[in-house]
Amino acid sequence: MSNPPTELLPTATNKSGTRSAGAPTARGRTGIARILLGRDTVIIYALVVFIIYAALFIPRFASPVSTGFLLLDVIPALLIALPMTLIIITGEIDLSVASIAGLTSALMGVLWAAGLDIGLVLIVSLLAGVLAGAFNGLLVAVLGLPSLAVTIGTLALFRGLALVVIGDNAVANFPPPLTSFFTSKLGGTGIPTVMIGVVLVAIIFGVVLHLTPFGRGLFALGYSKEAAIFVGIKVVRAKFWLYVASGSVSALAGIYWTLRYSSARSDNASGLELTVIAAVLLGGVSIFGGKGSIPGAIAGVLLIGTINFTLRLGRISDVVLIIVTGTLLIASVVAPSIIDGITKWLHTRRHRRTLPQASASGATRATASGVQEGK
Amino acid sequence: MTIGTSPPDTAATAMRRTSGGLASVLRLRELPVTLALIALVALTYLANPLFLGQQGMKDLLLNATIVIILAVGQAMVIITRNVDLSVGSILGIVAFSTGTLFVAVPGIPIVLIFLAGMALGALLGSVNGFLVTVAKVPSLVITLGTLYIYRGLNNAWAGGTQYFAGDRPDSFGALSVDTIAGFPLITLIAIVVVIIVAIFMASTRPGRDLYAIGSDPEAAKLFGIPVIRRVLLAFLSNGVLAGLAGVLYASRFNSVGATTGTGLEFDIIAAAVVGGVAIFGGSGTVVGAAIGALLLTTITSALAAIRVDKFWQQAIVGLLILAAIVIDRITRIRTAKKLRRSEARDV
Amino acid sequence: MINSPEPTIGRSITPLLSLRGAAKAFGPVIALADGVVEILPGEIHALVGENGAGKSTLVKILAGLYSLDAGEFLVQGKPVTFRTVADSKAAGISVIYQEPTLFPDLTVAENIFIGRQPKNALGLINRSAMRKEARALFEQLGVRVDPDRIAEGLSIADQQIIEIAKAISLDANVLIMDEPTAALSGLEVERLFHVARALCSNGAGILFISHRFDEVFALSDRITVMRDGEYITTHQTNEVTSPQIVREMVGRDIGALFPKVVAEVGETVLKVSDLSRTGVFADISFEVKAGEIVALAGLVGAGRTEVARAIFGIDPYDHGSVELHGARVKPNNPQAAIDAGMGFVPEDRRKQGLVMDLSVARNAALTLRNRLSRFGIINAATERRAAEDWTTRLQVKTRSQEYKVSTLSGGNQQKVVLAKWLATEPTFLIVDEPTRGIDVGTKSEVHRLLSDLAGRGIAILMISSELPEVLGMADRVLVMHEGRLTARIDRADATAESIMHAATAKLERSL
To answer: Which residue among B211, B223, B339 places its CB closest to the CB of C149?
Structure first.
């Protein structure tokens, strides 16, 4: 066994003369360019373009009434999309959100029908959402079970509990001042009063994700759980609280749904989970985790909501809407990979021509079976 | 020279070998779900013997048939570490097209109906597979998209139209009524499907490739397994089976229309998971998925038979799914511990 | 064995495999400009070069994963084009990658035969035949592995053995091993070499890639050197010395490989007492003083990393205590360890040390995220400045702080890991295999840096499987065997023999 090189040159101090990569000249896509070309920003552009188009060409779109209805419609999805964004960024998912909203709604109906004070009804319903979220958090974060499977389970469980609570009854006689508050608008703008609360929740989630140490941790966690642990990120705790947040916000959405339509039923908001996830993914949040933003997710929800609304204004059936949602979602994820592929192919082609054509004897055209080609 | 995992003592090895048969049965991932099914059926039978009467049995099997076929297909996809959320929509579109075919082509042979349905399913399934493999986008996203698109197409096509059993020949409906040895014909079809797919998955090279891909997709690529072709195959097969399920749906149920099969996706995935198919691929069997489907559908009948409020049914299904996941985790931890213990530290 | 230094051209022996003028580009990046390699029957051919020299690209071309942009590729004298991995396999080439590529859910036997399982009369897989063939293979290799167990949980050494069994069963006449020993040590490497030599004596050729020169010189017949995607030269192993190879790899004379400066040893920083975790390690007690580099040596699986993880709070421990500057550190809480002044450069840079998809700046500032926030809000500009500070000091080469850390070379990535910990101004630093998979040039930079840090009074615990590194860097060596400390050796007494002895023999010496 020969010895490894061990000669010591004590004179060699710092700067060992490794090749310098030529100073920071080419800066690549950094700073502002990166933000302007980001995947989530593209969706914001798309939203703006579409709104301008709709305002110009769709009759009755640019009116306070339209704005009002549009926003009233998207509020549940908008709310739930916020915690969903954070959860998907950590690489997990929550499919039980709509069921939690349904459970909250059912509970509200039963408690109100039982004659409880409306304030108490609201508090208990919200608490149910918190508990439901904590249950998810317990299974996913603390026990470390796969969230996709777990929340399919709780999707059935919570919806099932909603059925147990209220059966196939419906409760409708909520206090009129409350229900009318939930459909009231801010002056003549057409913007629903509850939007103030929604915007507040959105700001909280945006700040938490983008401007706090906790948020930094979530991105790291989404890319690499192990690396996150090594820098002291408390993975279990972070995920647990995200599910609690998701449950709470879903409960808020359930309460909103109940009071807006003045109807508490077990099947309220059913199927909403898929709409929310589709919108969040459309908004540039990566299903693999680690990538995404709150503005992007909001734009995703609003884009689907706005297209939905204009199609209805144009008396185009829901059918088209469903197809549009699906196509947008697929296009938004497939397009980048196609563009990427084309760019790579072009690069390679251009490059191949400039490379030295070593031994042009056509050795590269035979097959693995070893067909001999004459030189 | 010994390297690595030599069992510490030969006595233990010998013991393991003699108890190998029993031990391997106990290790089966399908065991918990099978026991749960047996327990459920036995307890319900004790409470209400009519549950296993001729009619009760038949209803039980009829209810399970379509879910079994879908769960088997879904299991193939999940084993490759993918998922197909669009099965409900595929089933819907095929069921409606079956209704349409009978009306548009009077006297069409039933065999042709089956072939047409499965071909349509294959087409829709391979669109999923194509997008997943070629565009390299996670299947959860792609099939969420096609769930909407296929449903939309079905809506656009069907509009308000519905076809009823009366529009179809009696011989077609008879598939879900006539029995052989107590088994409805469509259930026999499902059983044949389970057997064929089970053999494919357990004992053919492409079948084993699907497990390898789900176990470690990167390694599969390095190893030279034709990953794209195999994953395509899984999605295509799932499409064919969803198509078959769509045809059978039209035989079993009175009406088919725009909303047929809506919201099935999570029930199907749940059946596979309850049956021991790991959600992240690589392990589980289609037989397990079929038993899982049988268990979930049986619960409904069982609750009715013992007069439990029908509203409890879905909550119990949810609990079952969670129980299956927890049990799976516990067995995994136990196996890991056992493997660690058997590993001789002979460095 | 091959003795002639002449190239094979004009000789009677046809090379098993010969690649000339191989080029491969990815978009604008030229990974390989002029790759040359030739493998003769019965030879063990080493391929050396710094990271980024194009070795991995060359291996992937041979494996059929990448297609050639240009160049001549002959297998047994016949030109070939591989479009898939299957083509390469069919041509008798088998590759063992650095990280074993087994399927954790499948059985050992199935892992060996996947894709070509023996069939019965019905065309279905014959499991008992498969099991029998696997047993025969293991017998041939002289190892005992249960073919029916699933691959999950196998040690890396066992996984390598299964990869070799796979290669043998493929009747491969060219076996390519890409850093097979990176995660192995001592005896395991010897066993691997034994098998490799046996294969060669049957006429197979082996291409062996390694960063460890002792192995390269112990095993190979010829050495091919690559640099910057180009072929430099090929030597007969017995006609060349390692300094010469290093020069050719780096393209210049390299500074001190182990620039150990003995620093002034201060007071005790870390004190570990009776640390135990059932089934993993037991009764671990030691101290590290300011300015000291203490090496934790031993074989892979001896429990070194596990001890380090417990000290840093990533894993729990059952009893014992960890004190830093006399104060107990809260167990199982990495954040508490960081706050107390610990840093941890983990062994797996890609999975544990860095978040590969985040930018250099984000990675470097990740440890500081709590300190950088005011009223719970992080200021992006402050974050970038903090990140820039240490990455510049360590001369991390990146075009922009905003680039993903995955675009950096291995050595530069390791510098980012070091930067993010140095930014927290630790008083105690754990470095686990600090130079694994790092090219020679950066390696000595990392060593110099560690030496420098110790000189500034930081206490360092270094885990290393490379004996030269341990001998060159450590003030004291602690040796572990099967979860226990079996020896403490001072720098003056530390030799390869004394360390290996303690690492392999179970010495219940009073410590």
So the answer is: B339
